[in-house]
Structures are given as C-alpha cells and as structure tokens.
Amino acid sequence: MLGAGSVGCFVGGAWQAAGLPVSFIGRQSVADDIAAHGLSLSDQEGWKTHIPAAAVRFSTRPAALAKADIILLCTKSIGTAAAAKQIAVHAKRKPLVISFQNGISNAEVIRKILPKLSVLQGMVPYNVVRLGPGRWHRATWGELATERNSVTEKLAARIGDRPGRLQLSGDMRSVLWGKLLFNLNNAINALSGTTILAELNQRDYRRVMAAAIVETLDLLQAAGIEPARIGQVPPRLLPHAIAAPDFIFRNLFLRVQKIDPRARGSMLDDFDAGRPTEIDYLNGEVVRLAESLGRRAPVNQAIVELIKQREAGVEHIWSARDLRNYVLDGHRGATGFGY
User: Fold this and answer.
1) CB of 141 within 8 A of CB of 231?
2) d(CA 129, CA 127)
C-alpha cells in the first residue's frame, strides 16, 4: 500500500485481515500511531477488526517497494507522478500497479513513467474517516473495483466476500466517470465546512451538486461516454434523486446509502491540514472534458474557482443558500438546470 493514509490503511488492513500479506508505506505520523496502538478497522455495517502493532509491516521509506508483487497506489492524485518515480527506482519484481486514487487519468500518468509495468485503474467508492490513533472507519457505501485480468481475478478470489472485497470490470473508464459523479460533492462538502450528512441534509447544497452532475452528464453524452451505475440510482436519475425535496431525499436516498454521521470529504480534511486539494482531478476533469469538446462547464468551473480561492488563503464557509445563489443564480450563466 503506497501512500497508506486513511484509504490505504483501511483497504490494506481489510486485506491483511482476509489473509493477504500486506506491507504499508506512509507518513511517519501514521507509522507512529500504528506502532503505539495497532491497526483498528470498522465499517458502518458493524464489522470490526484489530491487527496488533507487531503484525503490521509499516515503513516510511519507498525502499520497502523492493519486495512488492502488487502495488496499490493510494496517494493523492497530485502526487501520482512522484509516486510512480519512486516505484521506478525501488520496485524490483516488475509488480502489477493498481491506482486506487480519485480522478480519471491517474493510470495514464503512471503508464507514461512506468511503460514496462502492467498498470491498472482502480476505484474506491467509499469514504474512510480516522476516528483516533490507529483507528479507521469506512463511513459510506460501495465496493472496490479494478480492471479484470488474471492477477486481479486471483486477488479477488483470495479476498472473497469479506470487507475490502474487490469487484472486477472490463470498462473502468465508465466506472471512474460513474464514481466522479458522486465525487463532485467533495468540493461542495469542503466549501460547506461540515460533515457529509449535515451538508446533504440541506437541499440548496444538493441543488448545486445536482447541477454539477447534470452538466457532467451532458458533456459525457457529447463525448460518447456512458458512466457506470455506482450505487442504487442510475446516473441519469441521480441528479433528480439528489435535488429532490428533503422528505423524499432523506427517506429514500439517505436511508439506502447509510452515510455515517462522522463522514467528511477528503477535501475538507485537506483544507484543515493546509494541503493542496485534488480539485483539478475532480470538478477540474469536467472542465477539461468541456474544453476538449469546445464547450464550457460553468457550474463545475465556478466550484473549481472557489476551491482555488480557498487554497490561496481566502477562508470562507459557504452557507447552502449563498453557494446556490453564487453558482447557479449568479453571473456565470449557470442557470437553467431546474433545481
């Protein structure tokens, strides 16, 4: 697990609990926590496990890649190229590399740097929160996915139907765009400054998300890309479900999705830690798709600009009404979405 933060620790720990030999590479602060407390995992369905510190192989040095047969890349997308260069220097066995990162194009970046290795695109649909030293909790729904080949078929079989189970796909581009529709909320959650559940309980935040999804779906149709269904709602119905009145949304969508009240978007964590965000690999992907088609994406562009302002030091918590007014009813031509 290269870049073992919240997602890497949860997935790697779940796979170790399933019987796979897992090694972790991450920050010193994470190594210290696990050395002191071990690795404790849980999910919103009640599953719990604890791996004693002595049984966790955690390193802060990329030299640990030398013995890897499979490398799961879990770094932020802004660190993809640097991580691929670490693999180029330290990996010795020509490992299979799977990108478990946000965004659409990470595998392409890795392949350019590592042309002799087999590189697959993966997808992590759920949010993982750190509850305390050595404790990580899966707080939302979904299953891991990656491309199907002979190695991933064996890997999925080894994991079985346990937490961290792996689904295989022959069309990961569709899967990634299907996930990105949900990830468009990451920036909205960060701008709200609250938990995902508290944010989604306010309809004006959801209206902004719905408009961002509608805009993305229109662009995907123009590009000939059909996003995969991720979760209970088909992509074309997703914005209508999200923008529905509160009573309908809470009793249908939230009841099915089982979002833990402690779940926060990773971009909000980036704000709190003073780190650069992945906005260019989320809403920014939509903006680039629009540009490639000679079109505009005013909703997603407005959201990108607000995140960039925050990264530049402009601290502002956007209320649901203010965000809706700015993005949808302002001067950016982002009206006409019916929400």
Assistant:
1) yes
2) 7
Structure tokens at 17: 């609990």
The pLDDT > 70 percentage for the chain reads 97
The Cα–Cα gap between 303 and 187 comes to: 7
Amino acid identity, residue 302?
Answer: A
Of 141, 135, 146, 98, whose CA–CA distance to 118 is shortest?
Answer: 98
Backbone angles phi, psi at 132, to 5 degrees: 165, -175
Q: Which domains does the chain have, with CATH numbers?
A: 6-170 (3.40.50.720), 176-328 (1.10.1040.10)
Q: What global pTM score does this model have?
A: 0.92
pLDDT digit string, tens, across residues 268-287: 999 998 999 999 999 999 99
In 98-171, where does DSSP find H-type helix? 106-113, 150-159
Residue among 307, 319, 320, 317 nearest 281 (CA): 307
Bridge-partner residues for 128, per DSSP?
138
